[in-house]
Amino acid sequence: MIALADYETDKPYKGHYKRDLAALQDRLEQILVAYIVRGGRAVIMFEGWDAAGKGGIIQRLTTSWDPRHFDVHPIAAPTEEEKAHDFLWRFRRALPAPGDIAVFDRSWYGRVLVERVEGYASEAEWQRGYEEINAFEAEMMADGITLIKLFVHISQAEQDHRLERRLDDPWKRWKTGLDDYRNRGRRGDYLLAMHDMFARTDTGGAPWTVIAGDDKKAARIAALRLIADRLAAGVDMTPPPLDPEVKRVARAALGLD
Question: Could you report the per-residue pLDDT of 171-188, keeping only the tens digit for each?
Answer without folding.
Answer: 888 888 888 888 888 999
